[in-house]
């Protein structure tokens, strides 16, 4: 039998809400914030809603009403799952508690990560699309840079080699939430993106940049409010000849990526999908 969840009582909720944290999460104090918040969540048995050890039960349950002698066999009864309703309500309470410790400066960032699609879950639930190649997983060759650890958007492709003139030209156009995916041939001999281009991408509304190649000005890029993936950092700048191809199919690690497809990146990896996936 499925174990039952218990809804938080009004007394418990009031007690949680009256806890004074006395600080908020800002763009610079994540370690301190986590060290202060985690013990609170553990001692109040709330951590399971955060780390996934109390998973969301399915909204519908099926029970078999076996009547023994019934020649028709078992009758399957479908009903709403009260555990699901309780979990959703408890989870909303925990979310509210945590969001009350997030500063306005960090709100958008936290909100974006909460709303983004988890790549592991997307793989688990889309086995058929993975098998047909409609969803592809990029090989785990990338390092994570930029403020946004989880990001997604329609792809603009670019093929260049040790030359970043076209990277700047594309980033000077409106991003409109797109992710620039640069096939730089995996070159480890110079950087295709640096702090200035990272800032430009942020200002022009790009969501992220994925580089099959290197970046530089890592500290500046890490301060930009975009997601960045690259093979490594390299201090040298690239050529400035303006050679390359925009919006063409590219290959990264043997995986084809087409302009207009969707990219999903989080701490677990990077997915390419022919169409937009629902969260
Ligand atoms: O100028 C470049 O080639 C890359 C760079 O350093 C930047 O974008 O800041
Ligand atoms: Mg620079």
From TrEMBL:
Its domain of life?
Eukaryota
Q: For binding substrate, which residues are annotated in this chain's numbering?
A: 194-197, 216
Family in the record: Belongs to the class II aldolase/RraA-like family.
Q: Which UniProt keywords apply?
A: Lyase, Magnesium, Metal-binding
Q: What does this protein do?
A: Catalyzes the aldol cleavage of 4-hydroxy-4-methyl-2-oxoglutarate (HMG) into 2 molecules of pyruvate. Also contains a secondary oxaloacetate (OAA) decarboxylase activity due to the common pyruvate enolate transition state formed following C-C bond cleavage in the retro-aldol and decarboxylation reactions.
Q: Which cofactor does it need?
A: Mg(2+); a divalent metal cation
Question: What would be one Pfam family of this protein?
Answer: RraA-like
Could you tell me the EC number(s) of this protein? 4.1.1.112, 4.1.3.17
| UniProt name for this protein | 4-hydroxy-4-methyl-2-oxoglutarate aldolase
**Reaction(s) the record says it catalyses:** oxaloacetate + H(+) = pyruvate + CO2; 4-hydroxy-4-methyl-2-oxoglutarate = 2 pyruvate
Which of this chain's residues are annotated to bind Mg(2+)?
217
Query: Tell me, how does this one assemble?
Result: Homotrimer.
NCBIfam families for the chain: NOT-MenG (TIGR01935), PRK09372.1 (NF006875)
GO terms (molecular function) for this protein are: 4-hydroxy-4-methyl-2-oxoglutarate aldolase activity; metal ion binding; oxaloacetate decarboxylase activity
């Amino acid at each position: 039998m499925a174990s039952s969840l218990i809804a938080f009582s009004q007394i418990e909720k009031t007690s949680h809400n009256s806890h004074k944290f006395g600080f908020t999460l800002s763009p610079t104090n994540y370690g301190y914030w986590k060290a202060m918040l985690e013990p609170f969540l553990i001692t109040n048995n709330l951590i399971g809603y955060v780390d996934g050890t109390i998973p969301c039960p399915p909204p519908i349950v099926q029970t078999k009403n076996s009547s023994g002698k019934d020649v028709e066999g078992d009758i399957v009864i479908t009903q709403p799952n009260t555990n699901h309703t309780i979990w959703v309500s408890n989870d909303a309470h925990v979310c509210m508690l945590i969001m009350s410790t997030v500063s306005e400066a960090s709100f958008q960032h936290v909100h974006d990560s909460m709303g983004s699609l988890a790549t592991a879950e997307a793989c688990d639930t889309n086995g058929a699309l993975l098998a047909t190649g409609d969803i592809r997983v990029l090989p785990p060759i990338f390092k994570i840079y930029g403020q946004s650890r989880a990001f997604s958007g329609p792809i603009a492709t670019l093929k260049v080699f040790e030359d970043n003139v076209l990277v700047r030209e594309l980033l000077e156009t409106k991003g409109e939430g797109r992710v620039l995916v640069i096939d730089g041939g995996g070159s480890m001999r110079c950087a295709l993106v640096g702090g200035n281009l990272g800032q430009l991408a942020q200002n022009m509304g790009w969501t992220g940049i994925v580089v099959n190649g290197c970046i530089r000005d890592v500290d500046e890029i890490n301060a930009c409010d975009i997601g960045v993936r690259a093979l490594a950092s390299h201090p040298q700048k690239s050529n400035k000849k303006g050679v390359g191809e925009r919006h063409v199919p590219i290959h990264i690690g043997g995986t084809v990526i087409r302009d207009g497809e969707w990219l999903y990146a989080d701490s677990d990896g990077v997915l390419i999908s022919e169409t937009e996936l629902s969260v």
